[in-house]
């Protein structure tokens, strides 16, 4: 039985991916700091092939413990490591607290790097394995009003591209998801110290949300296909098109705060 370990599995994209892979016969490991969310997600899945793991992706020790626990339950298999946990930071860069900046850097970059590095031996030992990283449309072009978040997702994109080349000889496939705006608990985060959430800001800008179920299907396709980066949603596709064919126009839009 194939096995997938999902960070950020308590809600949002992680939960949707867990449900889809489980429905298609996979063993699923859920990892998150949200104990209530973990229990809720686990309750949706078959108990005989689901494990839950409380962890902080910023902790190498947690990574080592969870990887060992999950592969013990899976019979040594780690077919997919889904590096999905992340936090949102939005608003004017000059208003961002150093605490929020550090948290975003630690979760969105260090958490992904630790997962890749410590998951590598398990992936290498599983034929046809895949490291799947959640990047973002914000990693396509630097996004005004989300500078730190955008920077972290560029880092995830770069890591994905580097490891795709480095690990190909070991038979490990490396992929990323690059979704636009997804209506998940991440969007409840306040913007730049204000009382407005990221979700409210997106709605006011007239931008669309992509359902998590669509992202889950994209994750399945990414794991089973050969595309390095999988764009998800109209926002991501528009940004990719504009960054390639109309970079000047996109730059102007960002300067006007209409990215």
UniProtKB/TrEMBL annotation:
<dbReference type="GO" id="GO:0016491">
    <property type="term" value="F:oxidoreductase activity"/>
</dbReference>
<keyword id="KW-0560">Oxidoreductase</keyword>
<protein>
    <submittedName>
        <fullName>Putative oxidoreductase</fullName>
        <ecNumber>1.-.-.-</ecNumber>
    </submittedName>
</protein>
<dbReference type="Pfam" id="PF00106">
    <property type="entry name" value="adh_short"/>
</dbReference>
<dbReference type="InterPro" id="IPR036291">
    <property type="entry name" value="NAD(P)-bd_dom_sf"/>
</dbReference>
<comment type="similarity">
    <text>Belongs to the short-chain dehydrogenases/reductases (SDR) family.</text>
</comment>
<dbReference type="InterPro" id="IPR002347">
    <property type="entry name" value="SDR_fam"/>
</dbReference>
